[in-house]
Records
---
Amino acid sequence: MFVWLNGTIRDDGAAAIAPGDRGFTLGDGLFETMAVRAGRILRLDGHRARLAAGAAVLDLPLPPLDLEGMTADLLRVNGLTDAALRLTVTRGCGPRGVLPPPDPVPTVLLTAAPFPAPLPPAACVTATVTRRNEHSPLSRIKCLSYLDNILARQEAQRAGAGEAILLNTAGRVAEATAATLFVVIGGRLLTPPVSDGALPGVLRAAVLEQEGAEAPLTPDDLLVCEEAFLSSSLGLRPIAILDGRPLPRVGEVPERLSPLLFPPTA
């Protein structure tokens, strides 16, 4: 496969990140995962806006990015039309220490992989090894540091589950390790608010625009929900089992919302 790195398309085996890059040494950077269908990046404006918001939080100067042109070149050399894109922007190299250099030169990496096949309905557990810090500004951006999410996903794997639900420091539901959580309670479609530690997902926003609402959720709410699913930029995944309880309904709402996965071009 080929990648786009700092303005040049290179074979992924020949692409190299400098040892002093702060994204590698400190997790100092941002990323976006984007869906491409028929050569078009879905909800590109939403991804651009979230990337810019994250850069403002980190005080990270974003270089000009022609995402559509970069993507077209990368898809062509890789022979792809449908793809999962990952854009990574780091602060670039810097001296030892925590403080960033005064004039950083960001590193920009764009990769593409074949669009993944739909996953089967998930079994989820509520994580106990870590909590989502809703007080941190990092909970609202796609920063490179994902160790809390990794710890929770490892816990899920040990429990024989495919995904973990993260609680925040107050014990309320925040999100899954790599997706937004939606639940149906009393016929209402609900998702945790950003103020409780939920990442402002791009597809999450599209779902909320069509139906549903933000509402604080507790672990007790998960015990009584009628249906649940996960939302990420790459799609909607029903939940079949939540903390060992088979849910009464599986996939009805994602099926109804499936047109959101192929928004019109105009």
---
Amino acid sequence: MAVVSPAYAASFVRWMLVSLLLFILTALLMARLLQHRDWHRRETLVPAVGMLLFFPAFVSLMNGQDSAFTTLGLCLWLYGLLTGREALAGLGLALVTVRPHIALMLAVPFLLRRGRVLLWFAAGSAVLGLFSLLLL
């Protein structure tokens, strides 16, 4: 794979760069969501930078955790719900299955309403599960 190699230190740096890229993507997505909510461009700069400097994000990068995927998934889920894009909300929630206890807790309310979000969540989770099995 492009991220993993026998050299541990180099692999760790590449993984940290992937995680940092995901955190930057998440910050940009949240800034865009704030602009949809009538925030001006300059006002969205502080929350976006604050998210990148958020201590748990820093710890996640230093420890090589997968929190960047969970954070991106939660932001996609929120963005999809607030903008009416159910497919994006469901796929974002599927990305949160990296932490299944959070994903399942957030998916339960969609059993009765917004079934399309639940359908996209199930489909996205199945694809990610299949991908995980193929990696093994």
